[in-house]
Design a protein that fits this description.
The complex is a heterodimer of chains A (641) and B (514).
Chain A (H helix, E strand, L loop, with lengths): L1 H20 L8 H25 L5 E11 L2 E9 L1 H24 L6 H20 L3 H19 L6 H32 L4 H8 L4 H18 L7 H5 L5 H10 L4 H8 L1 H4 L3 H24 L3 H21 L3 H28 L17 H15 L5 H15 L3 H26 L17 H29 L13 H27 L11 H4 L1 H7 L4 H47 L7 H27 L1 H11 L2
Antiparallel strand pairs in A: 1-2
Chain B lengths: L4 H16 L7 H22 L8 E9 L4 E7 L1 H19 L7 H20 L3 H10 L1 H11 L4 H34 L6 H5 L5 H18 L8 H8 L2 H26 L1 H6 L1 H21 L3 H20 L4 H32 L10 H4 L1 H14 L6 H14 L3 H8 L1 H17 L16 H19 L2 H21 L3 H6 L3 H12 L1
Antiparallel strand pairs in B: 1-2
Helix pairs in contact in B: 1-2, 1-4, 2-3, 2-4, 3-4, 3-11, 3-15, 4-5, 4-6, 5-7, 6-7, 7-9, 7-10, 9-11, 10-14, 11-14, 11-15, 13-14, 13-20, 14-15, 14-18, 14-20, 15-17, 15-18, 15-21, 15-22, 17-20, 17-21, 18-19, 18-21
Classes of the chains: A mainly alpha (641), B mainly alpha (514).
């Protein structure tokens, strides 16, 4: 089985290097096809490993070589394929294979086609390291690696100021969280003596709660950055500057779920500190509704989907925080399928509309883009959690978890969010595909995407439909060999049915309302004059609660200004000026005393007399001091010296 | 020949340099490259013959100089100094090989060969006076390089560099004389051999004063805040080759000396001063990173970033445990490679545009893609991306210090944030955006001569990031013996508890294993 592990891990790397070879040459198809094929190899290997694990086989664990070894620290490049990592591997390889194939079509006019595939495959490789590593240091390699690839891909169109700005923002914000992660790793090492998962988690059972709490908090800070949790969330929406396949793969399906993966992987730790878990769940619920509200008004389809991702990540953290790790991982998987599909559909729309992203300028695109419309609608249905699509099985489960554990506030917040989710998802569906034709007047001539792009998307469509009812049981049986196998059943059947049907009705009502409101005739491109647009609520939401503004004004600008002050005022005018001042003092002392040595007889005589007087007076002073030594001593001691 | 390899390593470039005066200036380049290559090959041979399982000194040579005062020509190399020697000869080689069109190229190459002598000498000298001689001699070639080939402010910068570091070294010399005197008082014999000094246990109050004297000399050299202001001038005015050698090797003399002298000679004082020095290190990390962010000149960004990274090295050194010190030595190598490469890269663009102002550039990624790629790699190494050489050192240094203090490590860890801020901002200004400046539209990409230096550096950056073991293992063995020595000879309770006792740890873990 080891060979499949290595194949799954290193195929994307080879693909990336292959594409990188063509980095400086003009666009060639082969730079896209070979990495895609290699990813398919990786996918097949992952499937074989999944089969192996499903059939009850041994966990595959290899140690490739030593990375760092000094003192008591020993870090190998070790990889493990167990029930958790194989789930992640399947999600990562499947979605990335599809996105690669899709991107061959999507990027086919781009000059930097080859560079794109080099980075995209490098991302998959980093992600595979992240999920397959058997220790925290290896996880950190992947963690930083995906950050690097994300930086390069957000800023892929580097001639755009907004893209490079967003790339740097994402990298730096992630770095802030990575510091937390790093400190968490240090804590794990100095308290357990190892960074290997199995050894560390075993040793954690014997640690005191305070230490464990700190470990839990710092590791979660790391997770907050990658998974864009409040208050480190602003980079995710700005990351939509990257090409759409990147948004689908990195900023929806895989990288942003790394934080959830970390919490799930560390379930043995978080099980010991339920208070931190509750905090994670509360923050998750808050982010869920917080992001959903921002999605309500946004006029950029990619940003709406990005906020939706943020909101769904909140759901996952809510589940993981409450100890329902398998539910979190299940929602992660289901979400990866329908969210990637939604993004890729959004990419089709964007292409058709010459990169226009405002849904108010579209309308009635369903006529020309039937395939995309069906896919995006079904993906939204899955996202909204309508039976029997994937979202129903994973998202409703999270609601049930919150309900059964009697966290009614979290439950209510998540339930409300479910309604908001349905509303904003169908708001953009209705605006893009239905209603009146608003785009022709603006000079757009949309066309459907290439056939093979739609074909490439279809596995995601199928999975978004069937992943819930087909996979739930086998997945549960597999993954609970490693994760706590708590089954969540509402005790009374009546409550269960009321809850389920109630939620379904609520969500459907939200969908209906969205369709009704945004398919209505007479929708115009908002121009900032309507009463709604000038209301405080709208302004608050469209400005993302003024958080980016706050960061810019109160963090970025002061940092920049302080830096300049430190350089120009402190470093130049205080620190360096002191050094030069001392040097100048020496020089001027020399200049001023030079006359003493001039050789002029009368000057010399004058100085001789001065010296004589000075020495004589010193002699007198010392003589007196010696004579009255005892008196001086008593005098001084009475002063307390 | 192997018995005298260290002397050969020191004096071969010097002798070759003197013969260089006889070489015609057209063939000087070839001559310089071949001398430096032979020297590098010799240093590789040294590495090859070095037994990495031995923690003590190897290839020792001794020759009495002033017998009545115990001053000897005493050389030796261990895991700590070995790689800096290899790095020094490597950088001299690629420095000469990639030397761009310089006036008086002959004098430049001779100066570089002389500089190489002093660099190797400092790192293999085991006698304090010999160490001091090489330490001071190294200033002279650098003074020439900055003063003769530098920018418009070169005289000011070179004099400042010389006087500042020289003043610090004099205090250090006084410390050395006192140390020898104390040794004489304790044993009745004069000795300047560092290994003899290691055995001397001093009372804590003596240690504190001597530590202070050595500290001033080393701190100016490193340079530590607030003694760092000579560095931006030196880098700003020095020609590319000068900056490369200065950043890659000369700054390491200070941090190396901390590990060679301060820690094993004064373990109690080191423990006593650990927190104050850690705070200075944190100021270095954060403050200079912010100053770097404010710079308009890309070379100054790299110069200040050096100070910031030296802060992490100092922090790792004063972790006083194996993980931290090993990490700091590894980071010395790593910083040498990465900052050397960054200065070379700045030199590449300076040769083309004769300006280093970032506002003059923008959009270079599309004009010079290979240059942008290599710069990007070094940038990522500089911000400590895992699987690059810097990460190993930075990670170990911070990990080591975490054992001593949580909160200070947290503050020092901001290095990974502030480092990313100034580096990414600089990269964005230079490489991203549209090409707006007409002069940048037709810049040639990196040439073959430049690649001669940049490609090996890129390979090392990744190779030692993925597989640091060949370097880490010898360092680790030597550091373990130093840490054990420090633990054994420390006298205060504080030092005993801060500096781990490896023998005991091994014993308990062996018991547990049984």
């Amino acid at each position: 089985m080891e060979i499949y592990l290595y194949l799954a891990l290193f195929s994307p790397f080879v693909g990336s290097m292959f594409a990188a070879l063509f980095g400086a040459s003009p666009r060639t198809m082969i730079a896209g096809i070979v990495p895609s094929l290699l990813l398919f190899v990786s996918f097949v290997s992952s499937t074989i490993l999944l089969q192996h694990i499903l059939a009850g086989g041994e966990v595959v664990h290899v140690e490739m070589m030593t990375w760092m070894e000094t003192g008591n620290l020993y870090i190998p490049f070790g990889f493990v394929v167990d029930q958790i990592s194989v789930t992640m591997m399947m999600v990562v390889t499947l979605v990335s294979t599809i996105v690669h194939v899709y991107a061959i079509g999507y990027m086919d006019h781009d000059k930097a086609f080859n560079r794109f595939f080099a980075w995209l495959s490098a991302f998959v490789f980093s992600m595979m390291i992240l999920v397959m590593s058997d220790n925290f240091a290896g996880l950190f390699i992947g963690w930083e690696g995906v950050g690097l690839c994300s930086w390069a891909l957000i800023g892929f169109w580097y001639h755009k100021e907004s893209a490079t700005w967003a790339a740097n923002e994402a990298f730096i914000m992630n770095r802030i969280a990575d510091l937390g992660m790093l400190i968490g790793i240090f804590l794990v090492f100095w308290n357990t003596g190892t960074l290997q998962y199995d050894g560390a988690f075993a040793a954690m059972q014997g640690l005191d709660i305070e230490t464990l709490t700190w470990i839990g908090i710092f590791l979660f800070i790391g997770a907050m950055g990658k998974s864009a949790q409040f208050p480190l969330h602003t980079w995710l929406a700005d990351a939509m500057e990257g090409p759409t396949p990147v948004s689908a793969l990195i900023h929806a399906a895989t990288m942003v779920t790394a934080g959830v993966y970390l919490v799930v992987r560390s379930n043995e730790l978080y099980a010991l500190i339920p208070n931190v878990g509750l905090f994670i769940a509360s923050l998750g619920a808050f982010v869920a509704i917080f992001a959903a509200t921002m999605a309500l008004v946004n006029r950029d389809i990619k940003r709406v989907i990005a906020y939706s991702t943020l909101s769904q990540l909140g759901y996952m953290f809510a589940a993981a925080g409450l100890g329902a790790y398998w539910v979190a991982l299940f929602h992660l998987m289901a979400h990866a399928f329908f969210k990637a599909l939604l993004f890729l559909g959004g990419g089709n729309v964007m292409h058709a509309m010459s990169n226009e992203l405002d849904p108010f300028k579209m309308g009635a695109l369903g006529k020309t883009m039937k395939g995309t419309m069906i896919m995006m609608t079904l993906a939204s249905v899955a996202l909204a959690g309508i039976f029997p699509l994937a979202g129903f099985f994973s998202k409703d489960l999270i609601l049930e978890v919150a309900f059964i554990d009697a966290h009614y506030i979290i439950y209510t917040v998540l339930l409300l969010t479910a309604g908001l989710t349905a509303f904003y998802s169908f708001r953009i569906i209705a605006l893009i595909f239905h209603g009146e034709d608003r785009h022709t007047a603006l000079g757009f001539h949309p066309h459907e995407a290439y056939k093979f792009m739609l074909v490439a998307m279809s596995p995601l469509l199928i999975l978004a439909i069937i992943a819930g009812f087909m996979f739930k049981m086998p997945y549960f049986e597999m993954v609970t060999q490693l994760l706590p196998a708590t089954e969540y059943h509402v005790h009374s059947a009546t409550t269960y049915w009321i809850m389920t049907i109630g939620t379904q009705l609520f969500v459907m009502l939200a969908i209906f309302f969205a369709y009704k409101k945004y398919m209505a005739p007479g929708i115009k491109v908002p121009d900032g004059t309507s009463a709604m647009e000038n209301s405080f609520k709208y302004k608050l939401l469209i400005n993302q609660y003024y958080i980016p503004y706050f960061y810019e004004e109160y963090l970025v600008k002061p940092y920049r200004e302080l830096s300049t002050v430190l350089w120009k005022q402190v470093d130049m005018k205080v620190v360096d000026a002191t050094v030069d001042g001392i040097a100048n003092m020496l020089v001027s002392t020399g200049e001023n005393t030079r006359t003493m040595q001039s050789g002029n007889l009368s000057t010399m005589l004058k100085w001789m007399v001065t010296g004589l007087v000075a020495l004589l007076s010193l002699a007198v002073v010392f003589g007196l001091a010696v004579k009255y030594l005892d008196e001086i001593k008593t005098c001084l001691s009475s002063l307390g010296v | 020949m192997l018995d005298n390899i260290l002397s050969i390593l020191i004096f071969f470039p010097a002798v070759a340099g003197i013969f260089g005066f006889m070489i015609h200036k057209d063939s000087m380049r070839a001559y310089g490259v071949s001398v430096a290559t032979i020297e590098f090959a010799l240093s590789l041979w040294l590495w090859y013959s070095f037994d990495s399982n031995v923690s003590g000194m190897q290839f020792m040579e001794q020759l009495p100089l002033v017998e009545s005062f115990g001053i000897n020509y005493l050389l030796g190399v261990d895991g700590i100094s070995l790689f800096i020697v290899v790095l020094a000869s490597f950088f001299t080689m690629i420095g000469i090989a990639s030397l761009t069109d310089t006036k008086n190229v002959k004098n430049m190459i001779i100066t570089l060969l002389m500089l190489q002598m002093t660099m190797v000498g400092v790192f293999v000298a085991l006698d304090a006076i010999l160490f001091y001689v090489f330490w001071e001699l190294s200033l002279v070639p650098m003074l020439y390089i900055i003063g003769a080939w530098g920018g418009p402010l070169r005289i000011y910068a070179s004099v400042k560099f010389f006087l500042y570091t020289f003043a610090g070294s004099l205090v250090m010399l006084v410390g050395m004389l006192f140390m020898a005197y104390f040794y004489y008082q304790a044993t009745g014999v004069w000795s300047f051999a560092i290994l003899d000094w290691y055995r001397l246990i001093l009372p804590e109050s003596f240690q504190l004063w001597l530590f202070g004297a050595f500290f001033i000399g080393f701190a100016i050299k490193v340079p530590m805040f607030p003694f760092h202001t000579w560095l931006p001038y030196a880098h700003g005015q020095a020609p590319t080759i000068g900056s490369v050698i200065l950043a890659a090797i000369l700054l390491k003399m200070g941090t190396y000396a901390f590990i060679r002298f301060s820690l094993p000679l004064f373990p109690d004082a080191s423990t006593f001063f650990m927190f104050p020095i850690a705070i200075i290190a944190i100021i270095m990390i954060v403050y200079t990173a912010m100053v770097a962010y404010a710079q308009e000149d890309v070379k100054q960004v790299v110069a200040y970033s050096s100070v910031s990274h030296m802060g992490v090295i100092i922090l790792g050194t004063f972790a006083l445990n194996v993980e931290g010190i090993t990490g700091s030595i590894f980071l010395m190598i790593a910083h040498g490679v990465v900052s050397g490469a960054l200065f070379l890269l700045v030199g590449v663009i300076y040769d083309r545009r004769h300006t280093k102002m970032m506002s003059e550039f923008g959009g270079l990624a599309s004009v010079m893609p290979r240059y942008a790629t290599i710069f990007g790699l070094m940038l990522m190494a500089s911000v400590g991306m895992p699987l690059t050489i810097n990460f190993v050192g930075e990670f170990l240094s911070l990990l080591g210090f975490y054992q001593q203090s949580h909160i200070l490590t947290l503050l020092a860890g901001t290095a990974i944030i502030v480092g990313a801020i100034y580096m990414l901002a600089a990269y964005k200004k230079m490489f991203f955006g549209e090409v707006t400046n007409e002069k940048n539209k037709n810049l040639p990409d990196v040439s073959k001569r430049e690649l001669v230096a940049l490609i090996p550096l890129s390979i090392i950056t990744i190779w030692l990031g993925v597989y640091p073991k060949p370097v880490l293992e010898p360092i680790n063995n030597s550091v373990e013996s130093i840490v054990q020595l420090m633990h054994d000879k420390s006298i205060t309770q504080e030092a005993k508890s801060r500096i781990p006792n490896l023998v005991q740890e091994r014993a308990t873990s062996a018991e547990e294993a049984n």
